[in-house]
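Design job #97: recover the sequence.
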């Protein structure tokens, strides 16, 4: 099976805006379509509480006519038009869909951060992990999230193997970002967040990119769009992952980063696995 995950940074902008960046986003979307994945996971949809508009759905159904669409949006008391996730899965698939709450602190459980698809022999779940914030003002809450999310995946794993995708908002190792020395206390590379990801893997999960590619360097999934030269200089971070239960790691065929051309911010990631 072939799966793709991508933090899109606003579904509305990608589908309807006329900006140069949105044009680049649509080119990336067309690249994803060419792969013909069975499932596509989108993070940071930034949709209102009631989900995509009629126009959004019309565009999506035109582009993805063979797919069902499910979403999880941020709802009160959380911020409006914030975070959010979406799955598109081929119509011949018939998963059960849930929108889990994990007992996370503050409004995190209301921010539309997780969707899980349950298939006969495995779970496919995606996450948009909360950012610790520019001044690390949400770091303590983020640490609680990491523990609760690890508990959630481990519970799924007790029932059947798990495939987990998303923007985990952490560069796990020094080789997962271009400049570790200058980012020791930056959100996404604090010791606390890195340890949280280590703890998650220790619960029985494999980082498929490292499983396939070993300690390759210079492989990133995010480049700061506020810095015009970040992608040209490959000054990036690998913060988007496909994880699998350890017992199915040997079934991974590919775990790759898809080229998004000149578009900065996140790039899509691909998983091919023999399930």
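Job complete. Output follows.
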């Amino acid at each position: 099976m072939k799966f793709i995950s991508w933090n899109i940074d606003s579904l509305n902008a990608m589908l309807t805006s006329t900006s140069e960046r949105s044009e680049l986003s649509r080119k990336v979307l067309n690249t994803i379509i060419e792969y013909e994945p069975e499932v596509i996971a989108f993070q940071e949809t930034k949709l209102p509480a009631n989900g995509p508009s009629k126009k959004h759905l019309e565009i999506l159904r035109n582009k993805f006519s063979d797919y069902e669409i499910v979403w999880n949006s941020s709802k009160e008391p959380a911020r409006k038009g914030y975070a959010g996730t979406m799955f598109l899965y081929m119509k011949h698939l018939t998963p059960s869909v849930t929108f889990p709450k994990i007992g996370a602190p503050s409004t995190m459980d209301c921010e539309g951060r997780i969707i899980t698809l349950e298939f006969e022999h495995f779970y496919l779940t995606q996450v948009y992990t909360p950012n610790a914030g520019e001044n690390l003002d949400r770091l303590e809450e983020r640490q609680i999230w990491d523990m609760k999310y690890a508990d959630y995946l481990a519970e799924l794993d007790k029932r059947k193997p798990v495939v987990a995708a998303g923007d985990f908002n952490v560069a796990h190792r020094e080789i997962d970002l271009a400049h570790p020395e200058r980012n020791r206390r930056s959100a996404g590379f604090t010791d606390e967040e890195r340890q949280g990801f280590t703890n998650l893997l220790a619960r029985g999960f494999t980082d498929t990119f490292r499983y396939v590619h070993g300690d390759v360097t210079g492989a990133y999934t995010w480049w700061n769009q506020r810095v015009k030269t970040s992608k040209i200089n490959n000054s990036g971070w690998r913060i988007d992952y496909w994880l699998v239960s350890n017992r199915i790691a040997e079934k991974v065929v590919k775990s790759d980063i898809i080229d998004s051309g000149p578009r900065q911010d996140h790039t899509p990631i691909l998983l091919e696995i023999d399930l």
